[in-house]
C-alpha cells in the first residue's frame, strides 16, 4: 500500500520539537472520513502533568476527552505533544482542564466534546474538573469515563 502524502503543516510522520508551552503547541486536525456518521472518540491521558502556579510543585491528573466529530478528527500525535507542553506550565487544575477542552473544540469544531480532569490530591483534597460543549446527538452512546472517585486509603 502506498504511503499517503501528508500536508507539510501536520506533525504526524515527521520529527518535531517538543513544545515548551501550551501556547506554542500545535494541534492538528485531519478530515473525518465518516463525517456522515455519529460516533464517539475517546482519548485518555492518564499521566497528565502541570505545575502549581503558586508553589511550583507538580500536579498530576488523569484526563478523559470524549468527542463526537464533525468534519474534523483530532490528530493524536499533536494531542500528545500538546498535553506534554503542560509539564512546565503553571496553572490551576480548573484552568488546565478547561483550557484543553476549549482549545480542542476551537480546532476541530466537534458536535459534542467533554473533558474530565481527575486530579490527584495535593494537600489532601482531590479536585475533579469537568467541561463540555456542543449538543450530544440523539441516540449516541457515551460510556462512563470509568475513573473512580478518589477514595483515599479506605
How would you characterize this protein structure?
The chain has 154 residues and is α+β, with helices and mostly antiparallel strands. The protein has a domain at 39-134: 2-Layer Sandwich (GTP Cyclohydrolase I, domain 2), CATH 3.30.1130.10. Helix content is 16%, strand content 32%. It contains two helices and six strands, in the order ββββααββ. It has helices at residues 76-84, 93-108, and strands at 29-31, 41-51, 58-68, 72-74, 112-122, 125-134. The radius of gyration is 17 Å and the shape is globular. The model has no long low-confidence stretch (mean pLDDT 92).
Q: List the secondary-structure elements in sequence, H or E.
A: EEEEHHEE
CATH class of the domain at 39-134: Alpha Beta
Strand line-up of the largest beta sheet: 2-3-5-6
Strand content: 25-35%
- Predict the CATH topology of the domain at 39-134: GTP Cyclohydrolase I, domain 2
Q: Radius of gyration in whole Å, from Cα?
A: 17 Å
Structural class: alpha+beta
Assign an overall shape.
Answer: globular
CATH architecture descriptor name of the domain at 39-134: 2-Layer Sandwich
Cα end-to-end separation: 54 Å
The residue-averaged pLDDT reads 92
Poorly predicted sequence stretches spanning 5 or more consecutive residues: none
CATH superfamily of the domain at 39-134: GTP cyclohydrolase I, C-terminal domain/NADPH-dependent 7-cyano-7-deazaguanine reductase, N-terminal domain
Count of DSSP-assigned helices? 2
Helix proportion: 10-25%
Largest sheet: 4 strands, antiparallel
Amino acid at each position: 500500500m502506498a504511503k499517503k502524502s501528508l500536508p507539510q503543516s501536520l506533525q504526524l510522520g515527521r520529527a518535531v520539537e517538543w513544545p515548551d508551552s501550551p501556547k506554542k503547541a500545535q494541534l492538528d486536525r485531519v478530515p473525518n472520513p465518516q463525517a456522515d456518521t455519529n460516533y464517539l472518540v475517546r482519548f485518555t491521558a492518564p499521566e497528565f502533568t502541570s505545575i502549581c502556579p503558586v508553589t511550583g510543585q507538580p500536579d498530576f491528573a488523569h484526563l478523559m476527552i470524549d468527542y463526537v466529530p464533525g468534519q474534523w478528527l483530532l490528530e493524536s500525535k499533536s494531542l500528545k505533544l500538546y498535553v506534554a507542553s503542560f509539564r512546565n506550565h503553571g496553572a490551576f487544575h480548573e484552568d488546565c482542564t478547561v483550557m484543553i477542552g476549549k482549545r480542542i473544540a476551537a480546532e476541530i469544531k466537534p458536535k459534542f466534546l467533554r473533558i474530565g480532569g481527575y486530579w490527584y490530591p495535593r494537600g489532601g483534597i482531590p479536585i475533579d474538573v469537568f467541561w463540555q460543549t456542543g449538543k450530544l446527538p440523539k441516540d449516541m452512546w457515551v460510556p462512563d469515563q470509568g475513573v473512580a472517585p478518589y477514595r483515599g486509603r479506605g
